[in-house]
Specification:
alpha+beta, 6-stranded mixed β-sheet, globular, Aminopeptidase
């Protein structure tokens, strides 16, 4: 775990899922309420055992941003080997900025920290998605390119 101070914000890198999950639990619940509303279904049911295993194996990490000591945003990143290329990549399992802190540069801070930690893990590529909001212009300004489009459909209900 490392803590980095950026003006009135601080960023913490967690490798321990149990500790990270305690810090972000309220934000995750708020995040899932927004997700449920956007997707008209689903429910909050994280698999803490799998998250813990991935963190323990060095295949996941969590970044938390704080404002004056209070957690206001998080990113859970998973690390995987490339299947069609050499190397590995990190991708967002989820990221969230509390509504009060959106539009204030907090996602920039999360992104920069995720990139730095990914590089520390030896990752050659990082991938973010924009599930709830159209974030294309933000990611393009940060040097990201759109590489795929995802479509989903609930089935079997």
């Amino acid at each position: 775990m490392n803590v980095y101070k950026i003006s009135e914000y601080a960023v913490r890198h967690f490798v321990d899922w149990t500790e990270a999950s305690e810090v972000i639990e309220d934000m995750r619940r708020a995040h899932w309420k927004e997700t449920e509303a956007a997707y008209r279904g689903g429910y909050y049911s994280p698999d803490h055992g799998t998250y813990k295993l991935c963190h323990d194996l060095g295949e996941a990490f969590t970044i938390v941003a704080y404002f004056h000591g209070n957690p206001i945003a998080y990113a859970i990143m998973l690390i995987s080997d490339e299947l069609h290329m050499s190397g590995s990549f990190a991708y967002d399992d989820s990221y969230y900025v509390t509504p009060k802190h959106r539009g204030r540069g907090v996602l920039d801070i999360l992104l920069n920290a995720s990139e730095a930690v990914s590089e520390h893990y030896g990752v050659g590529r990082i991938v973010f998605s924009d599930k709830l909001f159209d974030m294309r212009s933000f990611f393009e300004r940060k040097g990201y390119t759109q590489t795929t489009r995802l479509y989903s459909k609930l089935i079997g209900e």
